[in-house]
Amino acid sequence: MKLKEKMQWLTSRNTGILATNFYNLETLHGELKAARELGQPLILQLTSSSIDYMGLGTAVNAVRSGLEEYGVEGWLHLDHGGSVEIVQACLDAGFDSVMIDGSELPFEENIRITKEVVKRAASYHANVEAELGYVAKLGQSVTHTGFTQVAEAKTFVEETGVDALAVAIGTSHGFYKEEPALQFDLLADIHAHIDAVLVLHGSSGVPEVQLRKAISLGICKVNLATEIKNIFMKTLQTILRDTQEIDLRKVFPQATESVTLLVKEKLLVMQNN
Ligand code: 13P
Fold first, then answer.
1. 56, 138, 174, 202: which one has the fewest Cβ atoms less than 10 Å from its Cβ?
2. Which amino acid residue places its CA nearest to atom 3 of ligand 1?
3. Where does the pLDDT of residue 272 fall: very low under 50, low under 70, confident under 90, or very high at 90 and above?
4. Gap between the Cα atoms of 101 and 132, Å rounded
C-alpha cells in the first residue's frame, strides 16, 4: 500500500505510525527488528546529513533489503528536505515519501516551494510532507513559539495539495528542559479543518500520555530521532567503559538491541488509544 493511503487509513482509525530516523546499519536493523517483533508498519527516515553520512545509494539499498529481510511493511522518507534539489535526488533514488521543509520561509514562499515539490512527486506517486509553524530545530530557541494557525494551515493545504502536514503544537526537536505541554485544542481544531495527514515532529521526550492523546486527536505520523541516537550511544559508552574488546561485532549488537527495546515501547504507544 502507498504511504499516503496507509496514513489516511490509520488516521481514520485514530492510530499512529512511528517514523524513526536511522544513522547506520545498526540503528536501521534495531528499528526493523522492533517492527518485526510487534508486526507493526514503520516509516524509516533520513535527513540530508544522514544521507551524506551513509551515501544515498547505500542507504536506499540498506532500507530496501532490510524491509525484505525483516518482513516489515515500511516506507523510506526524506526528513526535513531543505531544497527542491535534495527532494528530486531522493525521488530519483526511489524514496516513497519526501518532506520539503519551508517552515522558516515566508508563508507565500513555503507555499511556492511545497507546490513545486507536490508537482514533482506526483509522477513518482510519492507522498509529500510539508511544515507550517515553528518547531524548534536542534540549537534553536525553544522559548520562541509559533504555533500552526488553523486558517493558514487550511489555505496552505488547499493551495499546495500536500499530503501530510507537520504542525507546531508545542513540541521541539531534541530533549526538553521542561516537560512539553502539547496544545490539544489547537490540534483538534486543525484536524477538524484540514484534509492532510498530521505529523508530530520532536517526539523524543514527549510523555506517553501526551503522545496517545495527540494520536487520538488526529496526529498520525510520529517522528522519533533523538531518543534513538541517545540510547544507541549511551549503551555503547557504558559497554566501552568496561571492555577492551576491539571486535565491533561483539559490541554493537548490544547497542542495536537497546534501539529495538526503545522502538518497541514507542510502537506500542501508536496502537492503544
Ligand atoms: P526528536 O529528535 O525530538 O525525536 O524529533 C525527531 C523529528 O521530528 C525528526 O523530524
1. 138
2. 202
3. low
4. 8
Q: What is the pLDDT of residues 183-213, one digit of tens each?
A: 999 999 999 999 999 999 999 999 999 999 9
State in Å: Cα 103 to ligand 1 middle.
15
Q: Which CATH architecture has domain 3-271?
A: Alpha-Beta Barrel (3.20)
Which atom of ligand 1 is found nearest the CA of 228?
Answer: 4
| 248-271 and 25-38 helices, crossing angle to 10° | 40
Label residue 139 by pLDDT band (50, 70, 90): confident
CB 77 less than 6 A from any atom of ligand 1? no
User: In the annotation, is 79 catalytic?
Assistant: yes
- Please give the Cα distance from 182 to 195 (Å, whole number): 21
Domain spans in the chain, listed from the N-terminal domain onward: 3-271
